[in-house]
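TL;DR need structure tokens for one chain.
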Amino acid sequence: MGKKVKKETESPPKDVFDPLMIESKTPATVVLMLSSPENEVLAKACDALYKFASKGDENKVTLLGLGALEHLYKLLSHEDPLVRRNAVMVVGIMASNNDVRKLLRELDVTNSLISQLAPEEDVVIHEFATLCLAYMAVEYTTKVKIFEQGGLEPLIRLLGSPDPDVTKNSLECIYLLVQDFQNRAAVRELNVIPPLLGLLESEYPVIQSLALQTLEIISKDRETRILLEEYKGLDCLLNILENNELNDLHVETLAVLGNCLEDVHTLQQIQLTGGIQKLLSFLKVSTVPDIQKNAAKAITNAAYDSEIRKILHWEEVETFLLRLLETNNDDVKVAASQAISAMCENIDSKCVLGLQGIPQLVKLLSSDNEELKEVVVTALTNLTTANLRNASVVAKAEGIAPLIKTLNAQRDGAISNAIAVLTNLALQEPIRASIQSQGIMSALVGPLRSTNSQVQSKAAFAVAAFACDAGARAELRNVGGLGPLVELLHSNYEEVRRNACWAVMVCGSDEVTAFELCRLGALDILEEINLSSKRKNKFSEAALETLLDNNLSQKYSRMGYLSPSNIITNGFYDCGQVKHGGKFLSLEELSKQELTDRRAIIFINAKPQESVVEVPEVSPPVSGRSSKEKPRFVAERMGGPVEKEELHNFCWELDMSEIEFDLKSNIVPIGKIKRGTFYHRALLFKVIADRIGIGCSLVRGKYNRCWNEVKLVEYTPKGLLLPPQEYVVDVMFEPGLLFKQGSAKADQYKRI
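>> reply
TL;DR here they are.
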């Protein structure tokens, strides 16, 4: 064998560079390294950037400006696990910055992050991928993408991760996602309840708290509440309340239970296991404001169901709520007042809460807290609605003055409900008088001017309730309340318009107020409303009729008709028919006009002794054609009977002009007229008939024609009483003659 020759060591390839340790003190250089083709360089660069970004928000902004994020986004799907892990770490830590998140959304990074949640990935990748998703899930569009790209399933799976950071980040992301309804349904189908309940036993309080907050959100859906019961979740929640060591979780636990109490079946199950007693016992001894507040909110949510209200009443929940009103925390008082409002739907609870709670609620009306004031008057509204006893309790507790003062509150809800309480109290006459004496009508002017439709509606309704008294109507006139009331007739809200019409109807029941309402344009608006099939209502029609019946001068001018119940009194004037859309002028306005050749205004102002005069006898004859006697008082006062053939020669116009000239006025008292035609005589007949109690109508026709209609009863030859018949009275040609309504002679008298 030959001698062995030592084999020479092979020299390295000429194109390979020896390993070189690079040290950089500038982030820009490290960002450039993210473009390196070498995995080791990439991994070290990412590690360096992670440490740099962790030092503060300014460093994150610096890296963003250097374009690091675009490079890191590409590295999220790198084949090398270490490079991928370090890149995810940098992106996760940088995502706390809002500008970073904005660019991440533009890069559509969610799909890449979700892919990092696979079971085989490193736990560090899970931690920072979920951290980044949690940061980004604050924004709605990202929530949608996480949902659409299948991110819910891996997030729920990671709730069982052995790493608490992964669990916490995944849980926080789920909490943000379930703020939207579609995600709540999705996580329910993915069976999120068991892992969430399991996390209630976590050793980390932040995880327990997040789990409860998530349960509170998803338990707003009834389907989730059913699942909670199936998985014994209610027992878990009650156990937390019984554990004093977990008192930092009691507030969130009560929020979840509050949702669960909304279902009758769930509440019954809790009751059967003694859970309600445990819950109330816990609440009665707790002095923590947040716990008391959430407990009251839970009762409020539960009390919307009638069966649940019964159960709560049996458990004497009213005692607990009344005690909460005595706390020093306004938020607790607000929640307690809301719960009292809800419980009022139960009649028995309403009685208990009324007698004991109303004095406490009245005291709270003096609070400077506007929210508290609003919920207190809401509770008082519910307590006094359809309950006269509770209304009396409010009055005895001296609640009227603070309620009236509340009409100046800042919140519309407080104003509208304060009005509602006062209206409920007004059902009792003595209390209504007391409210009126304390200036309710003046206080209602502000609410009548409100821009809030509910306040407007309640204010108009209150005016209708209190304006039944003449003094109250006078007060409303004097403080300028009729103007805004009339404006509400224009409202596009049906309830506001209806209540305003009702109030106008009530206010218009005396002549002074009716005249003022008409002056403000109420008649024109009501006529317009009644022409619309959609806008009119029974009160708009009644209001129009009431205004006209208490303003007969305007009624006769507009309608051309006065009924037997329309009694003409001093101050009435006939200014002729006002054209549609024309303005009806007051007597004062007419008196200021210069003398014209237009039709005179006939004015009624008889002295007391003039009311006792001889009047035509209008009893019908046996034949029904002519009376036995033909009283000629009206005719004789106005020129005597006129032959039909000589009517055109009956020169009443000249006499009327002479009277106007002598008076230097267009207004002529009816007693001055010596020669009068149809419309003068018919008016005088109506005036006299009204004063001595004879039912008589006054009807205006065309071409100065007017006539009177009366209803009379006839007897048959055998003495039987016949139904009333309507007749037209002749005061022109054969004064006292009666024509049966509808007959040819009656029609001839009206039109020829």
